[in-house]
Amino acid sequence: MKRRMSFLFAFVFAGTCVFINSAHAQSGSVIKIDGSSTVFPITEAVAEEFQKEQKGKVKVTVGISGTGGGFKKFCRGETDVQNASRPIQTSEMESCKTAGIKYYEIPVGFDAMAIVVNTKNDWIKEISVADLKKMWSPEAQGKITKWNQVNPAWPNEPLKLYGAGSDSGTFDYFTEAVVGKSKASRGDYTASEDDNTLVMGVANDKFALGYIPFSYTEENKSKLKVIGVIGGDKAPIKTAVLPSKDTVEKGTYFPLSRPLFIYVSDASYKRAEIAEFTHFYIKNSAKLVPQVKYVALPAKAYDMAAENVKKGKLGTVFKGHSEVGLKIEDLLKKEKSL
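^ thats the sequence. predicted structure below, dont judge the formating
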């Protein structure tokens, strides 16, 4: 979907990009959203359509401070809606509980993390999770600095790594899926919560490798090369698999596909415009999620989410951590149990 930005302008400060409807910046109610840069394109699309429908009565601001950074604000009551590329974690649940913040957990789609290299890279078409672990584990810091230290068949050239910053839900999920523990990562790599920064880093360095949301690869396919991932013993397929709508839906792109969420504050939901925005988001996700290059959930998942909100089912179906390799049908079973 080509985003129509003619009536939007952006402020960039402290690493956060906030989009505001300039025509209505001085009037109407405000819905404050922050969090994941991965979920940002979905929420941006929903916010744009919602503001059009409201005809100036409501404006929506959408910040990008990463899932972790967003939850800090959300659990302080500073935002109404939280974009999250992973489930809320135990420490965040405790922070929200301490502050009296209750919330609805709403899955909105699925994403795949793509492993990308420079287009001039001619020595690698696929990579195993085991090799990714060699590259990214904390023990690799300062030691695994060349490609041939990971695989002798690869060149004796500098290994330049690009990945999500520590406040990102993508960072949390990637480290748990690849290294085996959330937030366990070497620190000597180029980190950013802005996925476009990672795209440009890999695109400009022949010896770079990075991980980014799959949605960012489509618009940058002339700049990046996506490589297949061999998932290991627990993977349903033992050969290399490329990320795609099909492999995410079938659960074969393992272990780097994951659900995406929004969290809506219960206190905020009591405001009519935020209740309306929440249901607008759920109703329109099936259409808008694919348009911004993510994988939509089955219709019954959105129906279930709407019903859970309608019935006031608060909280999370997760236990404070991501579940690596979660399939869409597994997510549906969890949401049904809320």
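Residues 172 and 183 are 5 Å apart (CA to CA).
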